[in-house]
Amino acid sequence: MPTPPDFSVGQYNTAAYMNSIGLWLIKSQAISTSPAVTSVTVSDVFSSSFDAYQIVVSGGATTGGDYGINLRLGSTTSGYYYTGEYRNFSNTVNNVISAAPGAEWGAVGIATTNSLQLNAFVNQPFLAKPSYFSAMYIYGHPVGGQASMAGFLDNSTSYTGFTLFINASSFSGGTIRVYGYRK
Amino acid sequence: MDTGSRTMPRPFIQIDDEVREMTDDEYAAYLEATENAQALGAANDD
């Protein structure tokens, strides 16, 4: 009999096999299109079942303009340290985005009139320890470039959810998916 | 704040599957943040 990660049709999968699956879809949250929304809170996704998470946003668009997608854990509005850089495709713009600290993790992803793009790794938000994130994305369409961001939240609060928001315009559609890494 | 005479809806926010207008406090914070918002326009593109 094949062993994981290979399976045969009709194979009986033991608990040991299932428990070795590395990435688990915790929640898929559709973003409203009518009305469009400036923020989306996703509740009850962080727990003791996982330490590390991946947040992915796909599809959707803004109702106008291109803006960074910000991320907050719970209702905390202070202590968000982050830094990163963005560089355009023609390498004529190389800038830094940072806060020490800010009221949110800024520009974790990007929202444009074409799509919402966010792919963030978030480590230990549920633990009573500082939380960390790292993310990378392509911004703009068709002009734009690449951005990479990372940061941490300087507290020991345990969080169960998060909010994605932009400071202007609105999200219209798209899907937020939260995955947990098997411990 | 008197909200009875508003003709334009405030921005909407979503909490899981619930969508609603911002409250007074949420709207005040949003306006403050919006003043500092900058689109990724000509300054950041090529």
In short:
Chain A is 2% helix and 53% strand. By secondary structure, chain A is mostly beta strands.
Describe this structure in words.
The complex is a heterodimer of chains A (183) and B (46). Helix content of chain A is 2%, strand content 53%. Chain A has one helix at residues 15-18, and strands at residues 23-30, 37-42, 50-58, 61-62, 67-73, 80-88, 94-102, 105-111, 116-123, 131-139, 145-153, 162-165, 171-172, 175-182. In chain A, strands 1, 2, 3, 5, 6, 7, 8, 9, 10, 11, 12 and 14 form a twelve-stranded antiparallel sheet that branches. A two-stranded antiparallel sheet of chain A has the order 4-13. In chain A, a hairpin with a 5-residue loop joins strand 10 and strand 11. The longest helix of chain A is centred in the N-terminal third of the chain and has 4 residues, at 15-18. The two termini of chain A are 26 Å apart. With 46 residues, chain B is of the alpha+beta class. In chain B, 28% of the residues lie in helices and 17% in strands. Chain B is built from one helix and two strands. Chain B has a two-stranded antiparallel sheet with strand order 1-2. Chains A and B meet through strand 2 of A and strand 1 and helix 1 of B.
